[in-house]
Amino acid sequence: MAKSAFLKSSLAKKYWMALTGLFLCLFLSGHLAGNLQLLVPHNALNFNKYALFMTSNPAVKILSYLTYISILFHAFDGIMLAFQNKAARPIGYAKNNPSANSPWASRNMAVMGTIILIFIVTHMVSFWAKMHFDEKMPLQTVTISAQGQSQEFYVTTDGGYLPKAQVDQKMILIKDRTDFYDAGANVKIKEGYKDLYKITLAFFQDAQYGLLFTLLYVVSMIILAFHLLHGFSSAFQSLGLNHPKYTPAIKAFGKGFAIVVPLLFAIIPIYIHFFLKA
């Protein structure tokens, strides 16, 4: 009974919020490191190599599932904690000055978290779902010119090329949009790269909605920054990791993390939309 009561308590929820939040900060760091490759012009091959690694490596897959669970648990726990805190104070104080008692970010963590969750879902539909489930996901190609003639090739993961004309004429079949098969023997010949680089550029450079997508992405990163400004340092506090010597450094690092990481994420779509030529 005591154990069950503890798991349902606000203290337990704060522990889980802190642990999942700090884990998601690690995820943000790794995800940012990969996405920064989009700031390099004409870097399709390296970015698509990164995308293939992130969707095929067994260890990364395990971490991915852990990330999905952490996102859902963090969001659900945050909503439950917000309701629990509100229920504890059903009647507001006669004289209430919230700005004097707590920072704006701390009073709106649940709202910001909900907006961020909506952003994550739409972000995954736009990119993650296409990588995993879209049968029309384009494969990376390259055009090679020789002796005054240009020919388009599919880029393969072993560093080679397959003539696109032959593949499109069904001399070689595509299975699951990544594997090239011999049409007669039905034997896998090569593996290609899904062109997530092309999909990403097309998303933010779309003539009709590209600017809107870019602005919404930037606004979401601003909200994430405010969420992290309070969440990072409070996670250590919830875990009881306070120390006069280290806490100021943790708070300073948290502020830097909350500003730099969302800022770099926001720069990517701005650069793609306004400066990067497809």
Describe this protein's structure.
The chain has 278 residues and is mainly alpha-helical. It has two domains: 2-89 and 108-136 and 196-274, Fumarate reductase/succinate dehydrogenase, transmembrane subunit (3 helical TM bundles of succinate and fumarate reductases, Up-down Bundle), CATH 1.20.1300; 141-191, no CATH class. The protein contains eleven helices and six strands. The strands form two sheets. A three-stranded antiparallel β-sheet has the order 1-2-3. It has a three-stranded antiparallel β-sheet with strand order 4-5-6.
Would you report the number of β strands? 6
Identify the CATH homologous superfamily of the largest domain.
Fumarate reductase/succinate dehydrogenase, transmembrane subunit
Counting H and I runs of at least 4 residues, what is the number of helices? Answer: 11
Q: Portion of residues in helices?
A: 55-70%
Strand content: 5-15%
- The third-level CATH topology of the largest domain is 3 helical TM bundles of succinate and fumarate reductases
Give the overall shape. elongated
Helix-strand topology string: HHHHHHHEEEHEEEHHH
What would a concise description of this structure say?
This protein has 278 residues and is mostly helical. It contains 11 helices and 6 strands.
List keywords for this structure.
278 residues; mainly alpha; 3 helical TM bundles of succinate and fumarate reductases; 2 domains; 3-stranded antiparallel β-sheet; 11 helices; 10% strand; elongated
